[in-house]
User: What shape does this take?
Amino acid sequence: MKRPVEIEMPELRPKKTRESPGQPVPVPLSSITGQTASNFVWKRYTGILRTKQPEDANGRTVFVEIHDLNEVENLWNNGYFGYTSFPSENDVKEYEVQPWQPGTDIMPIGDVETWVEDAQFWSENTKKMEADGPSVEKRGQEEMSEREHSKDEKIETHAPGSWKEAGNWFGFDASGLPESQTCLRLELCEAFYLSYTLGCLVVEEDGVLLNLLGMWRRYSSLEYDFPYRYAVYHHLRSHGWVVRSGHSFAADWSVYRLGPPFYHSSFTVRMEVVCGQSGKLVNTGNITPLTWADLLGLNRLNENVKKDLLVVRVEKHGVQEADLTSPHLLRKLAIKLRRIKRWQPGEMRWEVKPEVPVENRK
Assistant: This one.
């Protein structure tokens, strides 16, 4: 008989912030606002579908942009959807990588072979440094004392109170920019969740409004794995997690409690697609089955950043090619979560050692 293994939630790591959490979703909730829910009082946001864009920080070239600053603030404060984009992010500098040779950064390559050390160089520069002023060590000590003095004064730094102040907070002045240049970018799964589940986002492409079926088919044509990614996103959001991109952790998603301003992410999520009848893993192109080497590497990465790894398997039950063209596909998908942890021998031992069959040899 094995010991019952108690699976505990990972320890929450709060952040220091002055921000207060808003609503879990960017639509009016009668339990919070006190107003009776009505079809006549509902939030609506407008987004524009952008395709074939330069790759962003999350590795995406397709997203939905929202430019109205009030809508941007509501979507971020109530559910933490999307991420802000400023014009300076698009001005990515390109660097040319060349092999480095010692000494060539201060003199041409042709002069390196003929260079002869000047015997008077160090003595002359030492006299010059003494004449210029105090030594580097003394100047460093003075700077350290100034920093300690400034800490004692306890100067407070105030967090930004609006999106325009946030631009100044990060060294970017957004006050003089038109609204079309400062925007919120939503991943396709986030955009469809707001449209399909909450019914608060209207998306247009080239001036034409897309209905829900048109959104599903258009998003599926832009991202082949969109139906399976959205199924996982919808499942995690429905359980109260704030789901964000996990691109920086080599994962599909990272999940937070309340939101990124309040806690560090608790889990990173990797997806797999499984055939419900045979139980075999399916390679969909962008979603590939994980190998043992992948699991070992991801588990080690997550331990270094103090997170847990979730492997989410999307099981397909009787899915035909025609089912992929409609959101009704979600009825034929089952989501199963597996939490990957390092094996602890002390916690996995037998309380009573089972009898081992003995083979009688004659």
Q: What stands out?
A: Confidence is low (pLDDT under 50) at residues 1-6, 151-157, 169-180. The longest helix spans residues 136-152.
